[in-house]
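Hi V.,

Quick status before I head out on leave. The structure for the redesign project is tokenized and pasted below; the design run finished overnight.
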């Protein structure tokens, strides 16, 4: 397929220097992690902002309203752009902002490509996950691969960083899935594995049958058990890691573990009740673990 398009650049963000572009992306997103990331030393901060900018851009492509063929073209352009980062010839402000972090922190091309592959799984207008193996692959691509990029920037040792990315990435993504079952269903996305839905007596993979499955609450409880074990594994790794290098991961874990606890308290029969932390809660955690931790 001949690709003649280029990756779009957000016109109201400063394109020069590239670091200003990605920092403006993070700031405009309103993420509660912005001020915590600001507490990092400048080289690491710029690296995290650049990775965030990349992840945000490919996620926006996957979640947007463009036709599937257009989304796939844009994601393929990002695959090309990632290769050009490692060749030293990128053109987009985000990828130009990634050049120094890739070199300084030895970020891996395979992790960037894994994120894009995960976004392509999300790009389809109808999403279904067949079994736990596919769910684990999805979690690895959209969450653990992002973690593998970030922990190298944070400065964790390689072995503990990879293990932490696996545990914390899976915990966070399972929490997202359990939190957003109804919201995802409204967009014809079901991340609960089809084989588990079959055991939960769902009549089909149609949204109404999924949400009405007699064993849906038990299915959710089982996935929550997996998430809880991943949280415990991540906490154990963080406990023995360099506190300064692990601080951003610790903060993210604390934010999501509070969401997870709210999910557990709410239970699995009233899936529409919102459990997101308030802005005050997120800011309190940012202050505790990000700035003063």
């Amino acid at each position: 397929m001949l690709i003649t398009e280029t990756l779009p650049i957000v016109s109201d963000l400063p394109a020069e220097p590239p670091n200003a572009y990605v920092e403006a992306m993070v700031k405009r997103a309103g993420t509660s992690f912005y001020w915590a990331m600001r507490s990092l030393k400048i080289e690491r901060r710029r690296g995290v902002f650049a990775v965030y900018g990349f992840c945000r851009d490919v996620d926006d492509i996957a979640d947007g309203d463009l036709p599937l063929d257009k989304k796939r073209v844009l994601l393929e352009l990002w695959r090309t752009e990632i290769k050009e980062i490692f060749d030293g010839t990128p053109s987009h402000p985000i990828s130009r902002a990634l050049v120094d972090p890739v070199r300084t922190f030895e970020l891996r091309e395979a992790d960037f490509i894994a994120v894009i592959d995960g976004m392509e799984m999300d790009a389809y207008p109808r999403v279904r996950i067949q079994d736990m193996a596919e769910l684990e692959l999805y979690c690895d691509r959209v969450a653990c691969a992002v973690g593998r990029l970030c922990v190298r920037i944070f400065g964790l040792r390689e072995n503990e960083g990879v293990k932490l990315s696996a545990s914390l990435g899976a915990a966070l993504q399972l929490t997202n899935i359990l939190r957003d079952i109804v919201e995802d269903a409204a967009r014809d996305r079901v991340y609960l594995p089809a084989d588990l839905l079959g055991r939960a007596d769902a009549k089909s993979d149609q949204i109404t049958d999924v949400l009405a499955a007699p064993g849906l609450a038990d299915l959710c409880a089982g996935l929550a058990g997996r998430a809880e074990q991943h949280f415990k594994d991540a906490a154990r790794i963080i406990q023995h890691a360099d506190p300064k290098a692990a601080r951003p991961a610790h903060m993210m874990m604390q934010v999501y573990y509070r969401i997870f606890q709210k999910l557990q308290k709410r239970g699995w029969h009233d899936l529409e009740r919102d459990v997101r932390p308030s802005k005050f809660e997120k800011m309190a955690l940012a202050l505790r673990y990000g700035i003063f931790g």
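Above is the designed sequence. The chain has a mean pLDDT of 91.

G. will cover questions while I'm gone.

Best,
W.
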